[in-house]
Amino acid sequence: MQETYLSGILLAYAAFAIGLFSPGPNIMAIIGTSMANSRSSGKSLALGIATGSFLWGTLTLLGLTSLLTFYASLMTIIKIAGAGYLFWLAFKAFKSAGKHQTQELNSIALGDNYWAYYRRGLLIQMTNPKAALTWIAVISLALDQAAPWWVGLSVVVGTTTLSAIGHLVYAYAFSTQTMVTAYRKARRWIEGLLGSFFTFAGYKLLSSDT
Q1: Alpha carbons 79 and 83: distance in angstroms, whole number
Q2: d(CA 105, CA 103)
Q3: Degrees (nearest 5) of the Cα angle 176, 179, 182?
Q4: Each residue's pLDDT tens digit in the chain (210 positions)?
Q5: What is the rounded CA–CA span in Å between residue 209 and residue 126?
Q6: CA 135/CA 116 separation, integer angstroms
Q7: What is the pTM of this model?
């Protein structure tokens, strides 16, 4: 039984981890804050965002579990919606790969109050309207109506760990202009690979048994 869900859990981890390679406003804020202020500021912001990821993951899991308890047939609709969002991410990645311009860095200045940076990161993530769709797509890669409780918990714990590590790496490694320049040179190739992976993940979600 464990092996039945292992591939789905690993695919969920991969989808979440791969998504971290496509910097959105959150990650650009971490990089910009680390460069303009300090790595410690960026790390505090990163931990706040990771905490927000955990809360979104937990809320999504509880919501999906509650729905499936009473309406098992909704799993098909949820997986179609999740796959649709993954295909949308693939489209955005391919579109971004075709562009020459990159996103601008966004620095946050809150002095040396690291707790304030943490709170700001948490607020940024919890008010992100795309977070719910992201988590529905990620969790549905591993979940079905017969999945035991530990499957969803494994996804939430594992992706929260990936979120903390990934965002901290951005705060630490990309706090110098050299690293930012190197990433921007490779960005279009990275976005192309991301688009390919999200397309694959969307296909796997649609073709999986519900």
Answers
A1: 6
A2: 7
A3: 150
A4: 456 788 889 988 988 888 776 666 677 788 888 887 788 888 999 999 999 989 998 988 888 777 666 665 666 777 788 788 788 878 877 887 777 665 555 667 677 788 999 999 898 888 877 777 788 888 888 887 777 888 889 999 999 999 999 889 888 887 777 766 776 676 677 678 878 878 888 887 777 655
A5: 31
A6: 26
A7: 0.76
How far apart (Å, rounded) are the C-alpha atoms in residues 56 and 84? Answer: 20
Q: What is d(CA 39, CA 190) in angstroms, rounded to the nearest whole number? A: 25
Which residues, including other chains, have CB under 8 Å from residue 28's CB and lie 6 or more apart?
Answer: 103, 104, 105, 106
Catalogue the E-assigned strands of 109-200: none
- How far is it, in rounded angstroms, from Cα 135 to Cα 156? 9
Q: Which domain, by its residues, includes 177? A: 2-207
Picking from 24, 5, 12, 48, the residue whose alpha carbon sits closest to that of residue 136 is: 12
How many domains is the chain built from?
A: 1
